[in-house]
Specification:
This protein is α+β, with helices and mostly antiparallel strands. The protein is built from eleven helices and 23 strands. The chain has a domain of 210 residues: 3-Layer(aba) Sandwich (Rossmann fold). Strands 5, 6, 17, 18, 19, 20, 21, 22 and 23 form a nine-stranded antiparallel beta sheet that branches. The chain has a five-stranded parallel beta sheet with strand order 3-2-1-4-7, sandwiched between helices. Helix 1 crosses helix 6.
């Protein structure tokens, strides 16, 4: 079988190429350049040239042909322009997911096919299996990588059955230390090369500087929202009361409205370090408890309007009135904002489009005991809203919606029908431990109701659902 390996110059794709060669395949390497600009990048001017040089040395060492293709025009149109558009709307895209769907397994794959490849291989840490579908035709499954610390299945959440039919993932059954060991024993030039970081094929960037290539900075207000704001907020109270009504009868404790999340590996709830959470019980539906804390029949009784409201974030409509006062011995007239029990203007920023939900760095506001986090952005008003500490109510949400046109099923034979309810495990960002959730399909879209409130649900990112260790589908998170 003739296989094209997408050789990036990194250790993962290098070992993938080596394993394919050892397995007896007719292997050739194809290096793709996808980016030329260096504005906003942090690692120098010619990083891609170094990657190409290492990739060529790896191909020579293994003994396989090496080719080069420039896909930068496609990458700009199909990934970077999409990024700019999403950020301008106050949403946070995931360019790595788009790169895999639009470039690696589309534009790149077409190029490889023209060179005679039957299959295209990459260095992703995930696994692929083939099973027979209901009609006897093959169905391709994407499974999590064996290494729980490197599972990259999330980044492939938008692939189609057609793309999977020609994809290979040779290192999916290996751990990162094993990959490093194989590379070292084979004396591959990439054996000690550090893993790439930042935006796929762009590198590590200063995001505001990068985005300012197209998005103009405009100064706006940073508003801190106090806990008092939620005490009488009708939307917040609706969410709390609705979640309480959805609880199973045998659960007496109140629904937790605040996430226990601290970081991708730490939880306040368990006060310990979690490595991707406990392994799911293989006897449970979808890898999670069958019922969860909510009653399925009560969820089913919710109207579309109630589900919409449950999935929408709290909006912050704070108005700050000014007053005039006299200051100093000369009684100079000055203007200040009156005290507001719900919040305070605490600083300025250079553009709401440069910030994302859950962001902590880059606010440049001091005077607080705990860290400040972005809890909302208002592009129209050019305002960002922040809250203090991990337990701020504005950081947590229990429900999200994926609009119908944004739903993607990897397993097309498992598509949910309107009115159907299923239990799956879900993640809303890479490396997040899988979370138990109830999925509710309606005509307008898919609602995901988590058993535990989630921190930093971000419009534009991808929600991905799994059955045990198999990725079933994904979708862009709505506002």
């Amino acid at each position: 079988m003739k296989v094209c390996i997408g050789l990036s110059g990194g250790v993962d794709s290098s070992v993938a190429a080596l394993l394919l060669k050892k397995a007896g395949h007719d292997v050739f390497a194809l290096f793709m350049q996808n980016w030329h600009d260096t504005e906003g990048t942090l690692h120098g001017d010619c990083e891609w040239e170094e990657d190409r040089f290492v990739a060529e040395m790896v191909a020579r060492k293994i003994g396989i042909p090496f080719y080069f293709v420039d896909l930068s025009d496609e990458y700009r149109k199909r990934v970077v322009d999409y990024m700019f558009e999403e950020y301008s709307r106050g949403r946070t895209p995931n360019p790595d997911v788009l790169c895999n769907r639009e470039i690696k397994f589309d534009a790149f794959m077409k190029c490889a096919r023209k060179l005679g490849a039957d299959m295209v291989a990459t260095g992703h840490y995930c696994r692929k299996e083939e099973i027979a579908g209901p009609d006897g035709k093959p169905v391709y499954r994407i499974l999590a990588g064996t290494d729980p610390n490197k599972d990259q299945s999330y980044f492939l959440c938008q692939l189609t059955q057609e793309q999977l039919s020609r994809a290979l993932f040779p290192i999916g059954d290996l751990t990162k230390p094993e990959v490093r060991r194989i590379a070292s024993e084979a004396d591959l030039p990439s054996a000690d090369k550090k893993d790439s970081q930042g935006i796929c094929f762009v590198g590590k960037v200063d995001l505001p500087v990068f985005l300012q290539q197209k998005l103009r900075p405009v100064q706006g207000e940073i508003v801190e929202v106090y806990d008092e704001y939620f005490r009488n907020n009708s939307h917040y109270l609706f969410i709390r009361d609705t979640l309480e009504k959805l609880k199973r009868d045998d659960i007496s404790s109140p629904v937790e409205m605040i996430t226990s999340y601290i970081s991708e590996t730490r939880s306040m709830k368990y006060n310990d370090v979690l490595e991707h959470g406990p392994m799911p019980d293989r006897n449970r539906e979808g890898g999670c408890s069958t019922d969860g804390i909510f009653d399925a029949s009560r969820i089913a009784s919710l109207s579309d309007g109630e589900l919409d409201r449950l999935s929408e974030p709290v909006e912050y409509r704070l108005v700050f009135e000014t007053e005039t006062y006299r200051s100093g011995r000369k009684h100079i007239r000055k203007t200040r904002y009156r005290e507001n029990p719900y919040g305070k203007i605490i600083g300025t920023h250079d553009g709401a489009q440069f910030y994302t939900i859950g962001q902590r760095k880059g606010l440049n506001v001091g005077g607080h005991k705990d860290s400040l986090f972005v809890i909302a952005t208002d592009i129209a008003a050019n305002r960002i809203y922040v809250g203090e500490g991990h337990t701020h109510k504005g950081l947590s949400r229990s429900c999200l919606k994926i609009h119908r046109e944004d739903i993607h099923w990897i397993r097309e034979d498992l598509v949910m029908a309107p009115g159907e309810i299923r239990r799956y495990r879900v993640r809303i960002r890479y490396r997040q431990p899988l979370q138990d959730a109830t999925l509710v399909m309606r005509d307008s879209g898919l609602y995901i109701l988590f058993d535990e409130a989630q921190r930093g649900i971000t419009p534009g990112q991808f929600g991905v659902w799994y059955s045990h260790d198999e990725m079933i589908g994904s979708g862009v998170i709505g506002a």
